[in-house]
Amino acid sequence: MSPKMLFNSNIFLLAFLPVTVLVYYIVRNCISFRHSIYWLFAASVFFYGYWDVRYLPLLLGSIVANFLFARQIVIGCKRQYATLGVIFNLGLLGVFKYANFFVDNINLITDRAIWIPEIVLPIGISFYTFQQIAFLVDARRGHVDKLSFASYGLFVSFFPQLIAGPIVHHKEMMRQFLESPRSAFIVRMTAVGLVMFAIGLSKKTIIADNLAQFASPIFQDAQLGLAPQFFTAWAAALAYTFQIYFDFSGYSDMAIGLGLMFAIRLPANFNSPYQALNIADFWRRWHMTLSRFLRDYLYIPLGGSRQGEGRRYLNIATVMLLGGLWHGAGWTFVIWGALHGLYITINHIWQRIAPPLAGRSFHLAAWILTFLAVVFAWVIFRAESLDAAVIMYRAMLGIDGIALPIEVRFVAERFGLIGILPDMSYFAQNSRWDFYAGLLWTAVAAGIAIFLPNSLQFLRRFHSNIDYRSISFSPSTRLLAWRLFGWHKLSPGMAVVAGLLLFISLKAINSGAATEFLYFQF
Amino acid sequence: MNSASQRKSAVRFISTMSFVVLLVTALTLLLSYAQFGRHTVASFALCQGVNSRLSAASRIFEPKLVLIGGSGVRRGVNARIIAGELGVPTLNFGLQAALGPAIILHEAKKTLRPDDTALLLFEFNHFSYDQLTTVAIDYVYGCRRKYFSSGDLGDKLTFLFNVGPARVIKSLTFQPPKDRCLNCTEGEELEPASGPISVGDVPLTETMFPPLSRDRKARMALYRPITISVDRQSKGPEAIAEFVDWARANSVNVIASWPNTVNFPEYKKSDGFKKIADFYRSLDVPMLGEPSIALLPLRFFYDTQYHLNIDGIVLRSRRLAIVLRRYIASLTLATRTAKQ
After folding, report:
1. Other CB atoms closer than 10 Å to residue A95's CB: what's the count?
2. Looking at residue B60, what DSSP letter applies?
């Protein structure tokens, strides 16, 4: 079996990427910009086919079918082809992503044994299907005028964002496939792209993968029926909270960086979500392109907040439930979505009825509450089954007793902690150093995610190269990013730091098997 | 800044960044390459221990039983007891678990000849094993360059990128002990002189099992159940499957049984044992006994959840001998039936 072409794999970094970039610039400079777009499309198709060639016809079929639907819509047959196109896309998702889930549940409810073959999820289907639905809807609204197959194909299949986003909008992509930036600007974009890619790769390989080694065995134990201790369960929940952030935002940074290497700007996807002070703010900062899609193509068409408070909450619940289901065909994802729907509803009600509060202590309380709510919800998102989630929640709530690591016995006895709660005791980790190394990584990750500016804020000086429309800047982040770190120009120091980050990531990649990105499963 | 100077600064930036990556990578690879054949205290001791057992094994000429695994075998099973119970020469080839199944099996192949039997007793973490540990790196750089050369490009890069500065410093300060040589057979004698031979055991004497500190004992009393699962895509199961193929091609019989570990009630709910049994079944490797033969109360353990004390080793070895005898009897019966 050939190795998978992950962004954090040798095959991608040492073969696919250099060849693709090199040929792209040769074609662009020696033949034409138009032909470089064809090359990018071909390279993206190869990239997808390298994963699993069996699903290549599905991607290509989906692109061709949607292109034909869109062409009919643009010609004038708007309503019927738009409806047909959306049904076609939802049908694809239904068959390839949800069929097994629905049949399993029908069997469970009706006590029947309907059998369908086990369908393996084609990678990236949720992302490329959503993009195409948005495109058809916009074509129906009259927002699409020009259509070219190569541009459309590249819009859907552009390899940096094909597998796990950011979910791009045709308005921000199509014009970039038609107009070539100036040559001086392109070199600068490539340089900034390299830095962005190095940051993203190091977030994944240095931080997220180390957190995964800590959190995964604990969740895996819960899946096997082994209950973790109170302390261990919280440690795993927190480690996963930061793992998924560094994993997914690392991937998004890499995608943005790769896009820039081809002079294409992709939208921002993360804006320090764990610095949010309420849950609505969290969703404005987490997976921003999905939130944008759900808002524009689901929440607003459902009526948004225009039809009264009751309807607004119902719309929020519907959107979050479907958002949960988008992440995976399983009850754990549905409940995760429902939980966030509930959080947002409570947040809106609170903002309506509570007096406006301000001040540091209020901000701190708001941040703690938001953060804990998010951590609590990540547990069911990560758990492989409802049973495993229940085991984790029982441990986190101390229902089966609270045990402290034996290493803190001295402190606990000194301060009289033992005996305060019933069933309080000690436990020992079998691999003590692995456990404490995991805790240390979690603390480091928390420090970076909560207190430091994010990668886009660091590179704010290069605003003309990066799509910054949705990134907020406080005076403090500006000060940190510009003054303290001095990353405000393409300086030799910055080149050395970025080069070292790339090297450390390369070393981490070669420390064992390359690990998949968490969002690939969605 | 005009566009020409913008372009110039961007080109300079890309060149500097590429130069840094290439320079640091080249230096790392060179430094790593220079480490081959250089020992640290740990690699010398490990290489010497393995070499002496390989040498002793090469002097057993009858068909033999080779017990393969990590230190759970070395400090969990006694080859002498098994050889005595079965009347078959037995080699304890339990190495350090942190070497990983691929290296352990690579070494084990050197001890095996046609008609030998390999008994696989891998620790539970070996069934979802992917990481290359510092122990394995230290060992391969110390004395197994051939193992490095036999790997594919990915494996080679893994070794080359992962020599830490600590190993370089340790190798620079290492002085080989004057009273020990790397390729001598000292410490591993074939015993007893007559009757079925055994080799490779930790001597069951009090000096090899000094009393543990109170703190260590207290920690052990609080141990938690370990994760029992199989990840067939990981390198551990891949190495085992590759070894089984090799054994078949070389007329070596392969069987497997359970590793010794502390018994926890939670294991009754675990389906990890079934996954391991299914894994061996998929390779057509007979699995001897139930997991319970190797799950022992904490009082039988010495210093980790895999290492047994003297009483534990004796009990465990006798239990293993019983299932081995049953297996041999079933083979004999099958052979007789086939002849009839």
Report:
1. 14
2. -
